Amino acid sequence: MTNAQHTKGRLGPDKIEAEILANERTFLAWVRTSIAVMSLGFVIARFSLWMREISSGVSATMRIRHTGISEVLGECMIGLGGVLTAFAAWRYRVVNRAIERGEIEADPRMVMAITAIILTAAVAVIVYMIVSTAAV
Question: What are phi and psi of 64, to 5 degrees?
Fold first, then answer.
């Protein structure tokens, strides 16, 4: 296929294998990101347990009675990691079908949706950190 015959969004037969492998690498990157989000969620969830253990070694007047929302926030982050994995598998399938048809196009809606989700999670963690620091 020459440049004059090339149509935007159409893949040449010699490019399909490279696109399939790139799609698999992208899926694996999503899975690594999901694992990182779930790991961070686990750490945040266990933060309240750690705070209780630390406070048990100090006098009764200094003990922490309420450790905030770290357990709930951590569980939400673990859930977000699971949702990201499911989304990655769905996206992999959609892109793979497009590659098999020889057609490929960018999806800016997906980029915006993931950006909104990550920004929301970041704001939640920042608010939690401010609230938990003010409570101490």
Answer: -85, 125
The count of C-alpha atoms lying within 13 angstroms of the C-alpha of 120, restricted to the half-sphere facing its C-beta, is: 10
Question: What gap in Å lies between CA 81 and CA 106, rounded to an integer?
Answer: 23
* Three-state secondary structure call for residue 107: coil
- Break the chain into its structural domains and give their ranges: 16-135
pLDDT tens per residue, range 25-79? 999 999 999 999 999 999 888 877 776 677 666 655 555 555 567 788 888 889 9
- Measured at the CA of 43, the angle between CA 62 and CA 65, to 5 degrees, comes to 20
* pLDDT confidence band for 24 (50 / 70 / 90): very high
